[in-house]
Specification:
407 residues, mainly alpha, Glycosyltransferase, 47% helix
Length: 407
């Protein structure tokens, strides 16, 4: 997985409102400042427990992070391999989907600045694919540059299931909720998502043997569907129909049964995140055990590693997923794992005054590189971190870090 060049430690966490009331004995004294965008900046006087801060460090740079992600979204939309007809592009689990679901957080950070064209193009493309779904699923393709599924052949059906979930998630998260209801394209995307659900409560997911999103990843897809359904809530009127309620029950059942059968820490983090959106999926004591398991996997530096997320809860001494490369070289804690776990913990209601959560936030606040990204590890094979494909995991890590820091 990709990462950044040699980086300086940064020592600030910018968060929405004033909820980062961190413990003084963990983060040291905090100085609050208000930006023109209305975002509170918490400048942390780091203690020895967080970083070796013998000299002042600058805050984490939201501008650099946004510039990086906007540029990557622009590149992805123009990359020939990502094109899927009529100016639309594949919504990828590693780049455009994390970018899309981080848009609300990025919008808060932008303040009054206009949305970049890459963002507008992505959302417009998803709406267009939802509107023309019948053409995407049709085996007959006519005209120049027709809409096509994400993948064809033997992967066609899993590609359609995967896209249906991703389209719904992207539009729900970014829906303006006019008059308290989701807009028509969002409602249609949710209808299409539920229409593709399997009887067992899950969706067939694209599998390429790549961790963590394309290897035995039906749980990942179901968790994203739960986030979409829970985020929509009562703003999606069709959600109250008996057939959709039955499908929602099946989704909850799938998440519970699959988590019991495959209790990887990655699944625990996804389950905690999903369960914070879709009420009734997990009982409070179940979520409490997830929190405990995730906190026990925290590394001494305050971060989490994707390597450790590959461990079953019952086998904390197991090897986990192998790290096959890192950027910067030697990194073990990484932005995707730390961002996902911190986001899940914060969504679950864990107070930021909790020492271990505060240390996770501090890891994110102090490990950003000058290019706006965070450390990442490669789970599948080494990549050149300076090539576009080698940046995919850095894209995801940066988006999840932003969501975690601004939750």
């Amino acid at each position: 997985m990709p990462q950044m060049p040699n980086h300086r430690l940064h020592q600030t966490s910018r968060v929405r409102d004033n909820r980062l009331d961190v413990k003084a004995n963990v983060l040291g004294p905090a100085v609050l400042a208000q930006t023109s965008a209305g975002v509170v900046v918490v400048i942390l006087a780091a203690s020895v427990a967080i970083a070796n801060a013998d000299e002042p460090r600058k805050p984490w740079d939201s501008g650099a992070a946004l510039t990086y992600l906007d540029g990557r979204a622009e590149w992805w939309s123009n990359w020939p391999d990502a094109r899927r007809g009529r100016g639309t592009a594949c919504v990828s689990c590693h780049s455009s989907m994390p970018y899309a679901i981080a848009i609300p957080a990025m919008t808060r950070l932008r303040g009054k600045a206009p949305a970049p064209e890459a963002q507008k193009r992505l959302l417009s493309g998803v709406r267009s694919r939802v509107e023309h779904w019948d053409q995407i699923v049709s085996p007959e393709k006519e005209g120049e540059d027709p809409f096509v599924p994400l993948y064809a052949g033997a992967r066609r059906e899993s590609a359609l299931d995967t896209e249906a979930v991703l389209n719904a998630l992207v539009l729900v998260v970014n829906d303006p909720r006019t008059n308290g209801k989701v807009e028509a394209p969002t409602g249609r995307a949710l209808d299409l998502m539920w229409g593709r659900q399997q009887a067992s409560g899950n969706w067939r997911w694209l599998e390429f043997g790549l961790r963590p999103w394309e290897n035995e990843a039906e749980f990942f897809g179901a968790a994203l569907a739960a986030v979409a359904a829970g985020t929509a809530g009562d703003a999606y009127p069709n959600g109250r129909r008996p057939e959709i309620e039955a499908k929602t029950t099946a989704l909850r059942g799938f998440l519970r049964s699959r988590l019991a059968a495959s209790p990887l820490l990655h699944h625990q983090a996804l389950a905690l995140w999903a369960g914070s959106h879709l009420e009734g999926t997990f009982a409070e004591d179940e979520k409490g055990r997830m929190v405990t398991a995730l906190l026990e996997a925290q590394r001494p530096d305050g971060g989490w590693s994707a390597k450790d997320l590959g461990k079953p809860v019952s086998q904390p001494q197991s090897a986990g997923w192998e790290i096959r490369g890192a950027h910067p070289a030697g990194s073990v804690s990484d932005a995707y794992a730390t961002g996902l776990v911190v986001l899940a913990l914060r969504r679950s209601g864990r107070p930021v005054t909790d020492e271990r959560l505060a240390r996770g936030l501090a890891w994110l606040a102090t490990n950003q590189a000058d290019d706006g990204t965070w450390p990442v590890v490669y789970l599948n094979h080494p990549q050149d971190p300076q090539e576009d494909v080698g940046k995919f995991v850095r894209d995801a890590g940066t988006a999840y870090a932003i969501m975690a820091l601004t939750e």
